[in-house]
Every structure is written in structure tokens, then in C-alpha cells.
Amino acid sequence: MLHWLNQIPVEEHRKSRLSMLNKEGRMKVLGIVCSPRLHGNTEILVQASLAKAQEEGAEIELVTLAGKTISPCDGCYSCRETGKCHIKDDMQDIYTKLLEADGIIFGSPVYFWSVSAQAKALIDRTYVFYAERRLRNKAVGIVVNTGRDGCTSALAAFSNFSTGQKMIVVGRAIGFGGREKGTVKKDERGMAEAEELGETMVQYLQSHKIPS
Ligand SMILES: Cc1cc2nc3c(=O)[nH]c(=O)nc-3n(C[C@H](O)[C@H](O)[C@H](O)COP(=O)(O)O)c2cc1C
User: Fold this and answer.
1) pLDDT band at 212, cuts 50/70/90?
2) 113 CB under 6 A from ligand 1?
3) Is the CB of 147 under 6 A from ligand 1?
4) For the domain that residue 109 is a member of, what is the CATH number?
5) Tell me, what's the pLDDT at 26?
6) What would you report as the CA-atom Rg of the chain, rounded to the nearest whole angstrom?
7) Secondary structure (DSSP) of 132-183
8) What residue numbers bound the domain in which 183 lies?
9) Is residue 15 included in any domain, yes or no?
10) 123-147 pLDDT, tens per residue?
11) I want to staple 13 with a disulfide (CB 3.0 to 4.6 A). Which of 3, 44, 87, 188 is the partner?
12) Pocket residue to mutate for ligand 1, from 110, 114, 118, most atoms within 8 A of Cβ
């Protein structure tokens, strides 16, 4: 079987992409926890995805928005001219991390059938990358923790953002952890989904050369 791009056998094509990936050492997976609570259920789920990704060979980093200041986008559009966001807050560091990551796992608690305000602020502030599609082709994993309901619309918020930024959603995990910190650990299926997401992310990154 030939690969449609350059007419080389598919297996050879796959191997060449793998070796390029390994040579550059490019497999950085960033987890962003958009819960305002430190060490809560969303963080536990994202941590489980990252731990699995690390076990599979990725370099990992977890960032939590708890205690950070991420102001909302003010719609000034100056970023379209300058390529920079004029709001000087904790998002500036996160911009660097987003650009450096090959894969990003976004996690949020479900708040009123959607993502947290922290998650929405982060989503909107990535508008700075939109004009030049600077997040294009990065792999995305989506993690949500819910008490009972609303997870599909929270997943949709992250998914629509990701595809809008031309990123590739490789999977998702839903935890039914509820309010009490740590209870998501009892949700075996949710925890297993989170781990599998980390594994899927690495498998995706290993089999795709992400254009820089
Ligand atoms: C403002 C607010 C809105 C919430 N809305 C919902 C909701 O729509 N559906 C639901 O099942 N749980 C809802 N919850 C419960 C949260 O989903 C739950 O506390 C959260 O997932 C815990 O995650 P954390 O430990 O990472 O903070 C809400 C909680 C808060 C504080």
C-alpha cells in the first residue's frame, strides 16, 4: 500500500515520521487544569492522563489555573496587529507553554453545563494565536469532571475551541467525581478513561510528525 502524499509504502512513511519525531525529542504533553480548586477532581483526572503519557515516553507538565489570574479577553483586537496580548497577567507564561507543547490536555469542572470561567477566559485569550494559526495541528485531549450532568456541553466548549484553532482532538475523559475532593478516584471508569487518554495522546504524537 502506498501513502497518497509521496507514493512511498505506508509503513516506511510511518517509520520515517517516527524517527524524525524521536530525533527532535518532540513529545511534550501539557496538562492545564481549569478548576479554581487546587488538587480537586479535575486535577486528579488530568494528572492520571499525564502520568500515563509519561509512562509512554512523553515529557509532561501540569499547570493549574487555581490561584492564577487569567483576565478575560477585552476584544481590543490589538493582537491581530502585534501578535501579542497586551494584558499582562499569568496567561503570558501559559502562552509560551502552549506554543512549546505538542499535545495539550485541557481539564475543567462542569459549571452550569459548561466549562469554568477560568477555562473560558483561557480559551478566549488564545485568540492571540488565531490569525496565524499558531496552535494548528497540536493534539488535544479533553477532560471534564461533573457532579451529575452537563458534561456534553462542557466537552463541546473545548471541542469547538480546539477545532476552531485547527487543533486535533484525539480523545476525552469524563469523571463523575462530584464536589468532594478525591471522590473521582472511586469512579473507576472515569479514571480509566483519563489514563487511556494519556496513552492515546502519546500514540497519536508518535505516529504523526507535527509540522512546526
Ligand atoms: C458554579 C458551579 C456550577 C456547577 N454546575 C454544575 C453542573 O451544571 N452540573 C453538575 O453536575 N455539577 C455542577 N457543579 C459541581 C461541579 O461540577 C464539581 O464541584 C466539580 O466538578 C468539582 O471539580 P474540582 O474538584 O476539580 O473542583 C457546579 C459547581 C459549581 C461551583
Assistant:
1) low
2) yes
3) yes
4) 3.40.50.360
5) 67
6) 17
7) TTTTTT-EEEEEEE-SSS-HHHHHHHHHHHHHHTT-EEEEEEEE---SSTTG
8) 27-62+75-207
9) no
10) 999 999 999 999 999 999 999 999 9
11) 3
12) 110
